Inverse folding.
């Protein structure tokens, strides 16, 4: 149970870190959205994650899957517009992957389901100048880092954040093909996508929380059954749990884009 | 702009309270902007639900009642309801036979309904299906839409699905007839004036005194062309031709028509339009089985109308004629809505 409690704490810590970051970036996100959208992305995301923190505070649960689902539902009900169902619906759906516990494997499944849901809902492809352009490379990088390169989830998350950042930069020269920006046609070229930007902020906060919690020893168990070994050092267990949660969250956020690599 | 509005931010909330006060057969799901049948869910019946932005009254809540909708979610003006409220509605309208959602094709509505269906299925054992309506023949993509927009023809879909569910049709049958109605319907609208949204308080778009907009959407989103003012007959001819071109019906096909007001046009003028629509279609060799005239799918206070033509077979005719009693549509005995 200590393991689950640590995971739950990590989810809550990550939610607050994201809420603080989005509050700080609210005006910047609004400026980005003013250029090619309807100038509400900053306020909507700020309001959404404030609600996330409120709802998590009201929820007495140490079940990471339930907590992450609550994050999604809060975003669905508070963000509105397209970002509500895109962010919230994808997180909610992907939270089911964590029902068996938070491990390297389930965080990969979480990331993949997030991306699949995001694409199914938004019908956007890579290169359409949407969240998908940041999420896709992040999810693919995370999966490859964990499964093929056998990196720790924390290391994999760091690589995923780098990938999301490159994906975000890639949105600037693109012509929008989905979302409200698409109605601007060529006039959308030269502007960074707001949704991909908020995605990166969320991933960066997940990574920061994971690094804080895990420190140098940080890593998530690769095997779900292994990480409950009572002989494990308690501190290590907690660190692992938090890292996993962070990764999960990051993966969730990433789901918007399809990766081509 | 003078309006019977207290606060723009509370207009939807106050409208819903007013509807329930007028129609005790409706009830509001607590803490939501969802209206449901007060006596629902109805045992042994598939639930039929709809929803979308407010400002299209009597759509959607005005069509709740025996033989039509079981629930309707009201978003803010021209804004999709949120998925959590849609999910609550879906679960509240499930009597164990499943629920069909009728969704107009706007990106926000579709995304929120799809998310709501996933929520409902995660939180309960409800079986949910949905049909996306896209009867507007005017434009392929528009401000809020990929593909065609769902407009007034959606009311036919509500009617047909509701009748099938009331007769005991299962979820699959109800979905089938809803899709059938959508596929056989085409609509084209026009505006004489812009609508005024409560929050903005001024016209959404500029249309000068001597201009009209053809192919307008129900949120004031752009149509196909802006032209000099035409006569009622010329407008009726233009809209009817546009729909017929798209539907490509065979001669002597039986059809039902709808001349739908956009909210700010007197019924008198809608009948003037209907006169021409009817004579135009009869001259073209079609058999008009029934003609609906009225405000069914409005756009706040926009002046203008839309014309819908739906080809009908025996099954659709029976379902359209099936009795229904709702605030926005009543059909009694063996007669249809417009008769």
């Amino acid at each position: 149970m200590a393991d689950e409690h640590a995971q739950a704490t990590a989810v809550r810590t990550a939610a607050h870190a994201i809420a603080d970051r989005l509050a700080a970036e609210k005006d910047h996100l609004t400026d980005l959205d003013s250029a090619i959208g309807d100038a509400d992305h900053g306020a909507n995301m700020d309001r959404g994650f404030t609600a996330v923190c409120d709802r998590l505070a009201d929820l007495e649960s140490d079940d990471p899957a339930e907590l992450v689902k609550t994050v999604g539902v809060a975003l669905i009900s508070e963000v509105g517009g397209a970002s509500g169902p895109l962010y919230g619906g994808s997180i909610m759906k992907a939270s089911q992957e964590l029902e068996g516990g938070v491990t390297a494997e389930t965080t990969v499944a979480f990331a993949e389901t997030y991306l699949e849901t995001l694409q199914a809902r938004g019908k956007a492809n890579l290169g359409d100048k949407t969240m998908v352009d940041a999420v896709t490379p992040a999810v693919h990088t995370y999966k490859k880092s964990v499964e093929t390169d056998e990196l720790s989830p924390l290391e994999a998350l760091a690589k995923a954040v780098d990938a999301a950042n490159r994906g975000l930069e890639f949105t600037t020269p693109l012509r929008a093909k989905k979302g409200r920006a698409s109605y601007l046609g060529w006039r959308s070229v030269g502007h960074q996508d707001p949704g991909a930007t908020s995605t990166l902020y969320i991933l960066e906060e997940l990574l920061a929380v994971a690094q804080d919690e895990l420190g140098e020893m940080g890593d998530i168990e690769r095997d779900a059954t292994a990480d409950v070994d009572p002989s494990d050092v308690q501190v290590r267990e907690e660190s692992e749990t938090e890292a996993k949660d962070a990764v999960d969250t990051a993966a969730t956020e990433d789901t918007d884009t399809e990766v081509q690599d | 702009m003078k309006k019977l509005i207290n606060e723009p931010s509370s207009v939807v909330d106050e409208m819903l309270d007013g509807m329930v006060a007028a129609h005790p057969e409706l009830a509001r799901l607590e803490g939501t902007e969802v209206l449901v049948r007060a006596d629902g869910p109805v045992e042994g019946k598939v639930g039929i639900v709809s929803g979308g932005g407010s400002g299209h009254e009597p759509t959607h809540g005005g069509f709740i009642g025996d033989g039509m909708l079981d629930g309707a979610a009201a978003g803010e003006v021209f804004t999709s309801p949120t998925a959590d409220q849609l999910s609550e509605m879906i679960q509240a309208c499930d009597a164990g036979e499943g629920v069909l959602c009728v969704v107009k094709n706007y990106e926000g509505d579709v995304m929120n309904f799809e998310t709501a269906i996933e929520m409902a299925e995660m939180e309960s054992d409800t079986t949910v299906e949905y049909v996306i309506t896209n009867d507007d023949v005017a434009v392929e993509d528009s401000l809020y839409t990929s593909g065609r927009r769902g407009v007034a023809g959606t009311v036919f879909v509500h009617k047909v699905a509701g009748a099938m569910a009331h007769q005991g049709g299962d979820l699959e049958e109800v979905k089938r007839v809803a899709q059938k109605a959508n596929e056989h319907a085409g609509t084209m609208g026009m505006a004489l004036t812009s609508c005024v949204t409560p929050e903005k308080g001024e016209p959404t778009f500029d249309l000068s005194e001597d201009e009209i907009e053809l192919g307008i959407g129900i949120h004031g989103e752009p149509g196909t062309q802006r032209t000099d003012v035409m006569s009622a007959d010329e407008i009726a001819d233009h809209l009817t031709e546009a729909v017929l071109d798209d539907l490509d019906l065979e001669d002597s096909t039986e059809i039902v028509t709808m001349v739908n007001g956009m909210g700010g046009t007197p019924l008198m003028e809608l009948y003037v339009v209907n006169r021409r629509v009817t004579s135009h279609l009869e001259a073209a060799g079609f058999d008009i089985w029934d003609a609906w005239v009225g405000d069914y799918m409005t756009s706040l206070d926009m002046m203008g109308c839309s014309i819908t033509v739906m080809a009908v077979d025996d099954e659709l005719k029976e379902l359209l004629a099936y009795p229904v009693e709702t605030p926005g549509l009543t059909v009694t005995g063996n007669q249809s809505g417009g008769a």
In short: The mean pLDDT of chain B is 95. Chain B has eight helices and 14 strands. Residues 211 and 228 of chain B are 5 Å apart (CA to CA). The interface with chain A takes residues 79-80, 82-85, 107-108, 111-112, 114-115, 118-119, 122, 143, 146 of chain B (CB under 8 Å).
